Amino acid sequence: MGPLFVIIFWAIILTPIGFLIGACLFLGGIKFAYWLFKVPKEKRRISLLWRFVLTIVFTIIFVPTMCAVGIYLMEKDTDDYWNSRGAWDYFRMPLEEPYHLSMVDTIDDAAIAKWKKGGNIVSGISKYEKRGTIVAGFCEKNQFRQNENKWFVFDCASGSIEEFKSEEEFLHACETHGFSQPVNMKTIKDNWTLYWKYPNRRKE
Length: 204
Prior knowledge:
alpha+beta, 2 domains, nine-stranded antiparallel sheet, 4 helices, 9 strands, rod-shaped
C-alpha cells in the first residue's frame, strides 16, 4: 500500500459519511428548523431540490477536507525522531538515536535501521527486549524469507550487531551485555503498544 491507495480508501469511506451528514443538515435539518420555528409553507424558500444540491455540495467539500486533515495528521511528526510513528503504510518506533525500528504494512515484523538513513541493519525481527542501549531479539524464518531462525544482540551506543544460530549462544551473549536472566522478549506488536501507551524516551 502507498499514499495514493490510502487516500482512495479514505475517499471511498468518507463519501457516504459526508452525504449522510449533509442529508442530516440540509434535508432533515432545514425541515426540522421550519417546523421548530413554525415557518409558513409560503415562506419556505429552500426547496427540496436545492436541499439535495446543498447536500451534494457539502459532500464534495467534506471528502477532500477530511482527506487533507488526514494527510496533515499523517505527516506532521515525520521529522520528529521521538514522536513520529511513521506515515501511510510505514510504521516506526524509536530505540536510541539514531537507530529505530521500522515496519512496512504491519507491526508484526520489524527491522533495525538508522533514522533517515535507510538500509536495514537487521531484518525480520519478530520479538525483542530492550534494556538501556542494548536490544536483544529473535528473527524468525517465514515464507517470505529464506534465512534461518537467528538471535541477535544490537548495541545502539556503538551500532554493533552480534548474531547467533543457537539460543544458548544468544543467552550467553546477553549475560555478557548485562542482561540478567530470564530474557523477556515481547512481540513487535506488544512492544509497540507498551511504548506508545507508556512512553519512556529521552527528548531534547
